[in-house]
């Protein structure tokens, strides 16, 4: 297409290229003292949500103290303006979640092989602590299925809850204590982002794996096997099961199935529930002896999993209702709640999704609904435990079975497969790791695959050739936009990742392959020779010394091939480092442009209007800026011909 | 500024916004079968340099076999056209590097506590293997100071070379064998990029650390201490030294200093050098017993360090002379050379920078210079060893001292500090890790810091607000371009990294903080309310399901705040995943634009021309495409007023 066919394309330059009065170049950012830059970076890394804004705005020591207290205890923010209409909503929501908390607490405690009453204890003290310190308005505190399962499987491997119930219980308190310490430390050290490395895909796979493992463990009772492996992996369990086929008690299988059936039809009594609120358990924590390490490991793993769930739930509801919660502050709240819990006969609590969703739907307004729930549970503990003698066990079974089934979220796995294959691998890694290996192996495998994906993104950045979209000044990836047209004599490459040590060598090879292929193609078509290589650095968010070294080498190597390297749209970090390392001088500021369009225009101007001058670029480029109209017409004309 | 002041700005639209005949939208890439996409990705990841291109082009089984052989033995590529003029150059270069190789080989063997003649053996067989299999034309093969140092310090910790010289030597062969196996495996498995994770900064710090450690070890001899720690770290050495102050032999110190002085003045005899070429050492490899593990560890660490040096040197010269070397193929060549070397009484060899630079400067043309060097060394071994009885030891000392001093490259460290503080931390991590801990700790520390930097880049991506550059359709970072102006009612945010699980939560918090701050600012200035949030996804190279989830949540949360989310310039991967996860439908294809300028134009059109219609976006946006001129004038007018 020629110019005449598109008269609109004749005057595009005034907006696309700065007019002579505004000779815009890519600026080198001004020097910042090291300490200032470091401070700003640390702040952006560890305090991205600027949590101390209110503290800074407070004047006078008394107000500042109040601001600190309000930061640590968000209850101080909402309590003063709390009124009856809010309480009415919270009362309804609190009673609703209490009616869920009591049977759920008992079931999950059974799942964790702990006394049923501990489930109630855990719905009394921790919600009170959270109501003071938590910043979510919708989170309902309580025990969760997956942490209960993990406690049972990890502690149970070392200490049998049937043989040594007291030691087992003390270890559960100790694990809760360690979990709380870990959670609070992560929050205090502003390391909350560690939880982000447990991606949604990891959690989906991990929970399904944990549920599968617990189901496998039920085979022992179902088949009535006298010896059973303490390992939890599929291979060990299957070995145990099939090496004892002669021991299989068919009566037991039949009985088990009948029992299951019976369970679904009738009801069983739950047994004795101690009256009275939480006894202290400070003296029960185990900090010595051979079992301390298993409590530590259990605490860390369950703590981090519980934290991931609680934080994710809190964030989702905050996003939904459009208020802000501070992730690190939440972690301190979770940690304190579990430390206090471990001293008052509770085991690990967090913010379960199901209970929080009920809380939200019941119309809760503030964390007061947790207080209402705690008081309801307290009343139950003080006066109503006799009633629970008659809690139908089948209800508990139903709750546990529902929890199990809910944990195997195969739809989420299918969604992962459809949208992102690597996330599916992460999910399967977690699942298979837990089922075939152990809980730790599953977690580590999933996190390692996730991290490898991130590293691979950086180690193998995508480089793409850009082309001109017809009738525009826009340059886009030619593999994405089929109508994008290459520009004669110019190769425009875009790098889609930071240039780091991990990819500098790769980029060196990949860019020279691009140039080789382009030259081959041009030669075989008998077209104009390649003269310019434009690197679009718009997506290069960061660069290190290896990256700077690459640009320097590339410049030299292109020079030896009689090609001119041109940079387009480098960010301020790239410009700063190019300047500091003196590579900017080597490349020449005149070969660095604000946009790809300007770079192409300059190249085209050199190719056509002043060919002989191309070797001493500096002066002629200066002319280009003054003759913008001409140059862009050249380009558009050209871009369309090629 | 009004429109009238810049008449040029009135007709910019035809190029910036597609005309009605070309209603360009961001396309959803066509579906690709999973296997095809996987294959393409694997190819791009493991074969970025397309090494099998020649193989594909070859027709017929015989040609194909030749192509395979030529791939494995690059000598077949250059040997047929090798002529006398090339040989003349290589002869000169080969003799030059041989004259360097002989004293250097002897010195480094002494540094590794191995018999001097092994240095000569190592300059005979490995260069011949490399000449067949290596693809670099400039690399000169030989032993290197740092690998010799490491061998001495790592093997010497377990087996004293003075007490058990034979066992020590056999372990050195074994370590070389393992190093070769590791190197060849990395190449065969196309895992060469692992070497890239040893950045330049790591190597600088590591080598300086290794040199410091060796200097510290000399204190034993200098002070004449009878008991000395086998640990290499600074603390242990200093403890050893200062706990035995009563043992310090002042005579020894004086003697040592005199000796050093004497060394520099006079010459010593080197001792006996065995005549004859390399004896076989196949039967000397140690694959059992307590020492196998230390040989394995030494082999892996020295192997990877040597590989990093050799590959970097090869790549630099290839870049310099503008030819291509295949990194993975080079690794196979290095690996084979060391495996063969370990069977013929050689210890670890690689491509040292100093010797290769001499080779290059002497005008080498092909790997034939290595053959010439090997033959010269062979002649020396066969006939000239008696001459070396008189090699002045002071020359060797000078070579070692020079190597030591050369290894502490403080200028490079200063450069790192100036250009990139994190690279400086990596360098110091490697140095301090080696000096205060051990060789392994230093390496691991440096690699971990390097990886953390990469992860931090992804975990804490930069988000910046974009503004319009005056008189242009270009939008750039407002913190980089001070003249960039914000657009009323529109917040334009740019995310500078892939959106992954590791940063989805962070971005959620950071973006809502951007919006909060913008709304606060607008309110305090009494300006127009915020109505549109444009996300520039141009630099988002990749996205996972967590990232897609973030966009979905963000859309909902913005809707609740009565803000419209608009996406600009998403890449094909982002579009594909948005489409597959149905989030594209939720956002609405009409809210996705090719450029920020088009997105702003559409927002401005909605803000001004058809305010009441803003809520049912789809239809009115369709109108925008047809009335391009109008819309852009609105925008430019506006962009300048704000």
Automatic annotation (TrEMBL), chains A, B:
Coiled coil: none
UniProt subcellular location: Membrane
Gene3D superfamilies, per the entry: STAS domain (3.30.750.24)
Keywords: Membrane, Transmembrane, Transmembrane helix, Transport
STAS domain boundaries: 480-603
Transmembrane segment boundaries: 63-79, 139-156, 168-191, 252-270, 290-311, 331-350, 370-388, 393-410, 430-452
Membrane topology: Multi-pass membrane protein
Residues in the signal sequence: none
One Pfam family this sequence matches: STAS
Record carries keyword Hydrolase: no
An individual GO BP term: transmembrane transport
PROSITE patterns reported for this sequence: STAS
Protein name: STAS domain-containing protein
UniProt keyword Iron-sulfur, yes or no: no
Any one GO cellular component localisation term in the record: membrane
């Amino acid at each position: 297409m020629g110019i005449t066919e598109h008269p609109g394309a004749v005057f595009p330059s005034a907006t696309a290229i700065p007019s002579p009065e505004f000779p815009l170049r890519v600026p080198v950012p001004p020097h910042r003292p090291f300490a200032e830059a470091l401070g700003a970076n640390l702040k952006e890394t560890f305090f991205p949500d600027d949590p101390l804004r209110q503290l800074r705005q407070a004047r006078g020591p008394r107000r500042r103290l109040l601001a600190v207290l309000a930061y640590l205890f968000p209850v101080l923010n909402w309590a003063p303006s709390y009124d009856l209409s809010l309480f009415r909503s919270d009362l309804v929501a609190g009673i609703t979640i209490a009616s869920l908390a009591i049977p759920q607490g008992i079931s999950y405690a059974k799942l964790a092989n702990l006394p049923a009453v501990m489930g109630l204890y855990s719905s009394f003290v921790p919600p009170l602590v959270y109501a003071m310190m938590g910043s979510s308005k919708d989170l309902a505190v309580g025990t969760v299925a997956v942490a209960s399962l993990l406690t049972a499987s990890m502690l149970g491997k070392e200490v049998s809850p049937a043989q040594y119930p007291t030691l087992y219980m003390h270890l559960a308190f100790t694990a809760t204590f360690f979990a709380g310490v870990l959670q609070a430390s992560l929050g205090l050290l502003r390391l909350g982002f560690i939880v982000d490395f447990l991606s949604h895909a990891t959690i989906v796979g991990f929970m399904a794996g944990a549920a599968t493992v617990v189901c496998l463990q039920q085979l022992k009772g179902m088949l009535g096997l006298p010896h059973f492996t303490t390992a939890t992996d599929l291979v060990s369990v299957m070995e145990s099961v099939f090496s004892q086929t002669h021991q299989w008690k068919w009566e037991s299988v039949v009985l088990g199935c009948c029992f299951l059936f019976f369970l679904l039809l009738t009801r069983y009594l739950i047994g004795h529930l101690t009256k009275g609120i939480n006894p202290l358990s400070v003296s029960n924590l185990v900090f010595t002896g051979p079992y301390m390490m298993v409590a530590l490991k259990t605490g860390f793993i369950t703590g981090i999993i519980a934290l991931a769930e609680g934080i994710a739930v809190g964030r989702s509801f905050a996003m939904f209702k459009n208020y802000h919660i501070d992730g690190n502050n939440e972690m301190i709240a979770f940690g304190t709640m579990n430390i206090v819990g471990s001293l008052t006969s509770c085991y690990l609590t967090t913010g379960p999704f199901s209970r929080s969703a009920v809380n939200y739907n019941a119309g809760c307004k503030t964390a007061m609904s947790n207080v209402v729930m705690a008081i309801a549970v307290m009343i139950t503990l003080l006066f109503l435990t006799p009633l629970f003698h008659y809690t139908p066990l089948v209800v508990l079974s139903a709750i546990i079975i529902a929890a199990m089934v809910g944990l195997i979220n195969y739809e989420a796995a299918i969604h992962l497969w459809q949208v992102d294959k690597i996330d599916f691998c992460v999910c399967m890694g977690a699942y298979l790791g837990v089922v075939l290996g152990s809980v730790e192996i599953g977690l580590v495998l999933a996190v390692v695959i996730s991290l490898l994906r991130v590293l691979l993104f950086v180690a193998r950045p995508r480089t793409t050739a850009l082309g001109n979209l017809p009738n525009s000044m826009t340059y886009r990836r030619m593999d994405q936009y089929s109508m994008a047209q290459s520009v004669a004599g110019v190769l425009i490459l875009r790098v889609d990742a930071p240039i780091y040590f991990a990819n500098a060598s790769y980029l060196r090879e990949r860019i020279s392959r691009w140039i080789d292929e382009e030259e081959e193609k041009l030669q075989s078509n008998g077209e104009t020779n390649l003269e310019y290589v434009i690197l679009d650095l718009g997506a290069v968010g960061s660069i290190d010394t290896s990256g700077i070294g690459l640009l320097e080498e590339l410049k030299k190597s292109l020079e030896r091939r009689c090609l001119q390297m041109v940079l387009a749209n480098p960010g301020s970090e790239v410009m700063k480092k190019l300047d500091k390392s003196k590579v900017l001088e080597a490349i020449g500021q005149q070969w660095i442009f604000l946009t790809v369009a300007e770079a192409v225009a300059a190249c085209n101007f050199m190719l056509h209007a002043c060919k002989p001058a191309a070797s001493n670029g500096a002066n002629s480029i200066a002319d280009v800026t003054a003759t913008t109209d001409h140059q862009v017409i050249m380009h558009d004309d050209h871009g369309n011909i090629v």
